[in-house]
Amino acid sequence: MAQLWGGRFTKETDQLVYNFNASISFDKKFYKQDMLGSMAHVRMLAKQGILTEEERDVILTGIEGILKDVESGKLKITSEYEDIHSFVEANLIDRVGDPGKKLHTGRSRNDQVALDMKLYTRDEICEIDGLVRELLVVLQRLMEEHTQTIMPGFTHLQKAQPITLAHHLGAYFEMFKRDRGRLADIYERMNYCPLGSGALAGTTYPLDREYTAELLDFAGPTLNSMDSVSDRDYLIELLSALSTIMMHLSRFSEEVIIWNTNEYRFVEIDDAYSTGSSIMPQKKNPDIAELVRGKTGRVYGALISLLTTMKGLPLAYNKDMQEDKELTFDAFDTVKGCLALFTGMLDTMNFHKKEMAASARNGFTNATDAADYLVNHGMPFRDAHGVIGRLVLYCIEQGKAIEELSLAELKEISPVFEEDIYQAVSMDTCVNKRLTLGAPGEKAMKQVIERNKEWLKEHEKLR
User: Is 371 helix (H, G, I), strand (E, B) or coil?
Assistant: First the structure.
């Protein structure tokens, strides 16, 4: 296979060098984007009088035929070609003859691959955003169903205060909502067209870069040709955002794994999202949650790899930048798979309300409310804190919860306690008297749920 750049060379490239240099094995993923970019480029060339209308139509028909044949499986993208650009151009010339040789007028592979990667990445951002939204819809449904499902809230993995499952899930709603915001920001910032930048210094042809950008639905053309072909900021930003999504999924997965243990029994994962043991018949393992947790490191690795690749590169394009493709493609696939599977697992998960409520009652999660009770009866908070500390110690020694103590036992700790203490430290009271916006009280949660509904309506799609 003759190379597109072979005129300067008198010897064939060594096969090992050719294989090492080739990118067709992975850049064939954006065959569609490459052809769409080429069609926009050809339309612009004809508009500017660089190609005739007849040449334009012949080339467009040829590219459309190649695209159709690739998608039907009639035409295979093979390692015979160095990259996706040479595959398209070589097949076009075979089909339409000399007009196909004019396809590359006024552009370089540098701005061509920069365009392809941006087009492909844009599509991936929209797909990932849609998957995050699906997860948010499931979270919203669960929040609506569990505003009265009491469970312990934790700090340091120790029971802290009673909350509701709706409140706990609402924390993840906020995380994934921010993730969608980051994706939208990246999309907007990257949405400028590099085509027409040439290898690094533009071209002498009278290209209309504004027109090409418009055809490809960009906000406009990029404004520096050297930056255009060497910019990987948008991929680094995106890999950072994807790493944050994975971090959120991993935190959630860790909790699902803990909640699924025999010691907690807060949840039961649907059989479709669990596996068993090859030796222990009683096991039902949270494999999806564990794999999501494990694959987080894979996405982190892509981010660190690209940062490391870019850190020492002078302007403008360097072949090192070819290393952005495989790791970014893998990160896209990993995040999409994890989002889809985690959402399915969460959507089918069964929450054990009784076990959650019992865990909240048995962990002194109402201790802060007992201290507040004393404060409301005139005791300084620091003194109240000490009294409740002694009370908890007594409860541990007696094997009782605070609300299980008799009034006489409570008065031995402090004479301030009266009969109304039992109402003050009930789980329902502890949760529902917290009514500030963002708190777990039912009225406050319903306010947030309504706001979430409006946000989901306003942000149905990224674009």
Answer: helix
* Separation between Cα atoms, residue 295 and residue 340, nearest integer Å: 14
Interacting residues of 56 by C-beta distance below 8 A, sequence separation 6+: 42, 43, 45, 46
| Identified catalytic residue from 168, 225, 277, 459 | 277
Contact 286, 269 (CB under 8 A): yes
Quote the tokens at residue 33: 């984007």
Please count the CA atoms within 13 angstroms of the CA of 425 that sit on its side-chain side: 28
Q: Cα-flanking dihedrals φ and ψ of residue 61, to 5°?
A: -60, -40
Region class of 284: left (phi > 0), else alpha (psi between -120 and 50), else beta: beta
d(CA 225, CA 196): 8
**Do 232 and 310 meet the contact criterion of CB atoms below 8 Å apart?**
yes
What pLDDT, in 10s, does the model give residues 193-211? Answer: 999 999 999 999 999 999 9
- From the list 143, 144, 167, the residue with the least C-alpha distance to 365 is 167
Tokens matching residue 161: 């205060």
Active site residue 85: no
Q: CA 164 to CA 327: how far, in whole Å?
A: 40
Asked if residue 253 lies in contact with residue 294, where contact means CB atoms within 8 angstroms, the answer is no
Half-sphere exposure of 180 (CA within 13 A, CB side): 24
CA dist 345 and 272 (Å) reads 8
Both tokens of 338, joined, read 């994890």
38/102 Cα distance (integer angstroms): 11
> Distance of CA 318 to CAs 36, 85, 236, Å?
25, 17, 17
Residue 397 CA to residue 92 CA, distance in Å, equals 84
pLDDT at 5 over 50: no
Residues forming a β-bridge with 164 = 150
**In the predicted model, what is the mean pLDDT of the chain?**
94
Q: Which of 223, 237, 110, 252 is nearest to 184 (CA)?
A: 237
pLDDT in tens, 79-135: 899 999 999 999 999 999 999 999 999 999 999 999 999 999 999 999 999 999 999
Long-range contact pairs involving 72-78 (C-beta distance under 8 Å, separation at least 24): 77/24, 77/28, 77/31, 78/24
DSSP state letter for 86: H
Give the HSE-up count for residue 380: Cα atoms under 13 Å, Cβ half-sphere. Answer: 3
pLDDT (mean) for 261-279: 86
240 is catalytic: no
Report the distance separating Cα 371 and Cα 425, nearest Å. Answer: 10
Are the C-beta atoms of residues 266 and 259 closer than 8 Å to each other?
Answer: yes
Which of these is catalytic: 25, 85, 156, 248? Answer: 156
